[in-house]
Every structure is written in C-alpha cells, then in structure tokens.
Amino acid sequence: MAIPHPRDIQVAVVDWLDERYPFSKAVDEALYQRVPNFANAFYYCFGGMVFILIVFQLLTGVLLALYYVPDAGGNPAPAYTSVQFIQNTVYLGWLIRGVHFWSANLLIVMVLIHMARVYWTGSYRAPRELNWMVGVLMLLIILALSLTGYLLPWDTKAYFATEVTIKIAGSAPPQQLGAFIKEILQGGPVVGPPTLQRFFTLHVFVLPALIVLLMYVHFRFIRAHGISEPL
Amino acid sequence: MPKRVTRRTFLGWWLASLLTATVVTGLAPILVYFWPAPPKGQKKGLITVSMQTPVDQLEDGTATQILAPTQPNSAFVMADGGGDNAPGELAFGGFVVKNQGKVTVFAQNCSHLGCSVAFNKDAKTLDCPCHGSRFRLDGSVLHGPASSPLSHLSWKQAAKPNEIEVDGLVLGF
Amino acid sequence: MSDKDLTKEGPGATVATPPREIEIVESDGHGGHTLEPEWKRLPIGPDHILYPVVVGLALFPILMGDAGHHLADDMPDDETHPFFPDHFWPYPIIAVVMLIAVGLLSAFVQKNLQLEASADPRAVTIPRPDWYFLFLFQFLKLGPELIMSLVIPPIVVGALLLFPFIDAIAGPRIARRLGWKRWPVPGRNIITGTIFVAGLAFIAFLTLWALAGPNFCLPYLTGKVCGA
User: Fold this and answer.
1) How high is the pLDDT of residue A30?
2) Which of A160, B43, C58, C221 shows its CA 20 to 30 Å from the CA of B167?
3) Quick one: pLDDT at residue C185?
4) Does B1 have pLDDT greater than 90?
C-alpha cells in the first residue's frame, strides 16, 4: 500500500468534515469577512490586546497552579512557601510568575484604555448597549480577579490589604448583614486559611470561567454588530 | 381596563409559583454550605500570656504589648467595641496599660480601620500609624479620625506573678 | 372524518384549499456579507500544507457564528479589506511584543515580585492596596466611611453600567435645552467629554495623592488628609 501524502490526508479530513457540516465555508467566512478600512486605526487594537493578555493570564495561571498550594495554615504557610518555590526554585518559575504578575498589571491598564476608547468614540450607543454592559461586567471581574489574586502569595501586605477590603465589605448596614458578609467572605472569624481557600476558588475556578463566558458573548456581539464607526 | 384573570392564567401562575417554591425550598438548605464551620480544635477559653515585668511591678504611664500565642495559634476576644471594633471580634495583640494606678488591657486594633496601634513613650499615648489616630492611656480618643475608644480585653492575674490570663480563642488552624 | 366533511357553509366553515406547493429555497446559510471572490483569496485551500494553521486562526471567529449584515457589506470594496490577513497580521506581532515586554519586566523588575514575610496577623504593617485600588483607598478618607465605600462606588459603577441608556435618554433632552442640533458622542461633546476627562483626572489625582505617602498631607474640609 502506498503511503499517502500528508496533503491527501488533510484533504480527506476536510472533505470528511465538509460532508458533516459546512466546515471550509465556515473557515472562509471567518477569515475573509470584510472589515472597514477605518478599523485599521491604532486605537481599535486595545480590545485585541486585552484579549491577548487574558490568554497570557489563563496560560500562565494554569502553569502556576501546578505548583501553588492554597494552604495558609502555619507560619510560614505552604501557600507562601509554594510561591517562593515557584519564584526561586522551579525552572523558569520566575518567568511564569513574572508574566502572570506583569500581564495582570498591564491588563488593567489596557482594559481602562480600551474602555476609554469605546466611551470616547460613543461605541456604547445603540445597538451596542448590551455589549458595553458586558464590558463593564468584565471590568468588575478583572478587578475581582486582581483582588483575589493579590491574597494568594499570603504575605504580609496581601494579608492586610485583604483584611481591609473585607472589613469595608463587612461594614454594610445593618450590622448583622455586614457581619454576615464578612463571615461568608472570610470563612471564619478572622482572615485565615478558609479565606485563602475561598479566594483561591474564586480566582481559579469561578471568575475565569465567568470572564471566558462573557468574552465569548462580547466577541459574539462584536461580530453581530460589526466594528463601530470612528469619531 | 384590567384584564380579567381567567382560570387558565390563574392555574398557570399557581403552578409556576408552586414549581419555584419547590425548587427554592429544595436548594436553599444547600446555602448553609457556604457558612463557615469552626475548624476542629477551635475553642474559647482563657489564654495565658507571660510578660517580662509582673503586672504589679508595671510603671505608671506605660503600655506593654502582649501578643496572642502562635502555639497553638490563638487570638484575644474583645470585651467591648466601638467604631471598627465590636465585642466578640478577634485581636492578635493588645496592650497592658498601667494608668493612674489602674491596670487595663486593650486590644491593639485601632477603632478607625483596625490597624495595630503602637505605644508612644514620650507622649504616653497609643498611636495608630495608618491614619494618625491617637488614644490616651485610658483608651479614649485624643485625636481623630477614630471616634470610638479602644476595645477592652477581659483579663485576670494568673498563678505566676508575670502571667495574665486573657479571654481568647484557640483558632484551630 | 373525511375531507369533504370540512366543506361546510356558514360561519366558521372551513374552506377546502388545494394542497399548497411548498417552495424549496436552496439557501447557502447566510444572507449577510459577501465572500471574497475566488481569485482574491489566499492560495491556501484544504490542499495546502498550511491549511491547519489557517483553520486554527479561523477557529475563534467560527465559534462566533454568522457575522450577519455589516456596515462593511454596504461599503465600496476599496474602503474595506478582508479580516485575514490584512486585518489580522498586527495581532501576532502585538502578542509577541507584549510577551517580550512582560518577560523583560519580570526579568529586570524583580522588586515588585519579591514577597514580604509570610502573613502573620500579629505583624504591624500599614495596609496599602495595589496601585489600581489606591484611588479608592484615598477616596475613602474624604468623607464618612460608609458613604464613601458602600454608597458612592456602587452608584458610580451602576451609572457606568447603565451609561448607554443615561446617554440616550438624558442626552437629547439636554441638547434640546441647550439648542444643539444633536447630542454628539463624548469625543465631540463638551459635557460628556468633560465629565470623562475630569473623572479620569480626579482618579489620577487621588492615586498620586496616595502614592505621595502618609507624610504628604493636603488641607481638606475635615482637616488635613494624607496619602497612603
């Protein structure tokens, strides 16, 4: 039996897919959709940059999760020592953690610039109101991700910054409600191991899932509306 | 003109509310899961803290810092509150203050936003480094932004002269 | 009951209709935009070695579904360009540049990545949030805590969330009152544009104030307020 050329295998696969659903048509449509020339202005690229940074975050986040231990019991806590381990011992650990850290900072900057551009050019106007609202929700999720991620290294500054944040959330009136919020966020009477686990769960499972979902909705809306007109 | 409620609409709403109520009552108990259960080994009790100077030999107008022990990990429990503090809240440190012959123990948490206050030897005050609140040695506010006095910790003299027992909580982690 | 029973006279009678021809429309799935003509596409078809790469690039937009009808479809050809590669090519470059930038930052600005001591609630430190929350932290000091933390920020976020509707409803009314012909977008609007710039300036000011440190104090209604 003659060995088939890779190209023949590829064509066969595409043909197989095409018989089941309009595969190559979908690829063509996606790739060759026409874009207005005004969308080439540099200030239309901030959203794409935010997307790229979020991809960086997801990838480096998965890598960090290989070594991170969400345990705050004892002193020094395993959470703290595991971050030290990533930073100082793991091969290229400093780079992965560094990219996660700096991308997070850059992400906030880019999100704000992107939002400012959308506001400035009035791109939130009909029919794009829903997409603006999705965007604001994503901004809040990004801030929540920063807040929860800040605690994970479990060092002094993280601890006290979180304590203040929870305290502010817990000052909601009436007092019982505030105490309830505080207890639920902290997972106990003080900021401690249960707090870290709760923040870890939010940072690693809940919020990323939410933001990926919202990103899908965001892009879907953009694709439905097309790029907004410039100023 | 208000629309007449037909039997059909009524039954529709009735069934929808029944369904909602069933789902809510079925799921609501699961919310308890979010309420933190105390870890094993968490218990209230008196915490013995040893000090360098016995309580009866403290100089007047001084405040000595005490810290809740780490072995086992414990915290003091505030006896009263005000501002950011509340009775029953935890403090990881405090000050044994001797003022005009009377010994009091305060939680170190500033009543403004909970930063740890520090003893200012020269002015004989407890100062907060965060937002500049200052407290007199009787716990009252000398300078804002705090508006409530420092919280007290309940304490009593232990068997040894240089040890005191403070109301506290062994955290269990 | 047969068909002829249906043919009755009088009110409510059904009218026998001849079986209707259902028109079969050969649809190609989307009524929206036009694809590139064959000769303008890239010479990368399923028989090209790089086709999997192209498929990978297209996967994301494929998930996005049909593009619908766009402004670009009504524009003359020379005012538009295809998404790939004309619109796509800067993004891989941007991605690589950003990756290099954050990589260099993590290599040379290690200071920000170093940890302090492991958290101990007994330690005495002045809590300070990360830079992006500094403005909020400073804002708290400007008034009663509850109002500044749990009343105003949610209102601002709510206003931001609902801004498209606020702009669409309140905007034209303000425009009419001022005698403007229309209510322009913020970039051309003295009111919404100024609110935006002033808001950003206020946030920047609060951040700088906080960054200036606890010894930097400015006079305020309630006495002096210092940085964080």
Assistant:
1) 80
2) A160
3) 92
4) no
Query: What ipTM did this prediction achieve?
Result: 0.90
Tell me how far apart the alpha carbons of residues A85 and A78 are, in angstroms, rounded to a whole number: 10
pLDDT in tens, C62-91: 787 777 777 788 888 888 888 888 888 899
CATH number of the CATH domain containing B63? 2.102.10.10
Beta bridge partners of A55: none
Where chain A has pLDDT below 50, the residues are none
Chain B environment of C126 (Cβ under 8 Å): 115, 129-130
* Chain A neighbors of B90, CB-CB under 8 A: 189-190
Domain assignment present for B25: no
Closest residue on chain B to A77 (Cα): B173
Ranges of residues in chain C whose predicted pLDDT is under 70: 1-43
For chain A, which domains are there? 41-225 (1.20.810.10)
Residue B135 located in a structural domain? yes
* Beta carbons of B105 and B66 less than 8 angstroms apart: yes
Residue B162 vs residue A154, higher pLDDT: A154
Using the Cβ of C10 and the Cβ atoms of chain A, whether some distance falls under 8 Å is answered with no
This prediction has a pTM of: 0.86
- Do A170 and A181 touch, CB atoms closer than 8 A? yes
Question: SS in 3 state form for A83-125?
Answer: HHHHHHCCCCHHHHHHHHHHHHHHHHHHHHHHHHHHHHCCCCC
Q: HSE-up of C145 (CA within 13 Å, CB side)?
A: 17
Contacts of C222 in chain B (CB under 8 A): 145
Ramachandran class of C179: left when φ > 0, alpha when ψ lies in -120 to 50, beta otherwise: left
Q: How many domains does chain B have?
A: 1
Q: Is B29 within the bounds of a domain? A: no
pLDDT at position B103: 87
How many residues comprise chain B? 173
> Choosing among B47, B116, B133, which should be mutated to test the C contact, i.e. which has the most C CBs within 10 A?
B116
At residue C161, the pLDDT reads 97
pLDDT of residue B156: 87
Q: State the SS3 of A120-188.
A: HCCCCCCCCHHHHHHHHHHHHHHHHHHHHHHHCCCEHHHHHHHHHHHHHHCCCCCHHHHHHHHHHHHCC
Q: Is residue B55 part of a domain?
A: yes
The predicted pLDDT at position C32 comes to: 45
- Cα A208 to Cα A203: distance, rounded to the nearest angstrom: 7
E-assigned strand segments in chain B: 43-50, 62-67, 74-77, 90-91, 93-99, 102-107, 118-120, 125-127, 134-135, 141-143, 155-157, 163-170
Q: Which two tokens stand for residue C145?
A: 């805590």
- How far apart, in whole angstroms, are the C-alpha atoms of residue A63 and residue C124? 33
| Residue B125, SS3 per DSSP | strand
Q: Contact B38/A188 with Cβ under 8 angstroms?
A: yes
C-beta separation of B127 from B118 below 8 A: yes
For B114-124, what is the mean pLDDT? 87
Q: And the tokens for B124? A: 């004989």
In the prediction, which pLDDT does B55 show? 81
Best CA proximity match to A108, nearest among C103, C90, C131: C131
- Virtual torsion, Cα A12, A17, A22, A24, nearest 10 deg: -50
How far B16 CA lies from chain C's nearest CA (Å)?
31
Mean model confidence pLDDT for chain B: 87
Token readout for B171 is 């955290």
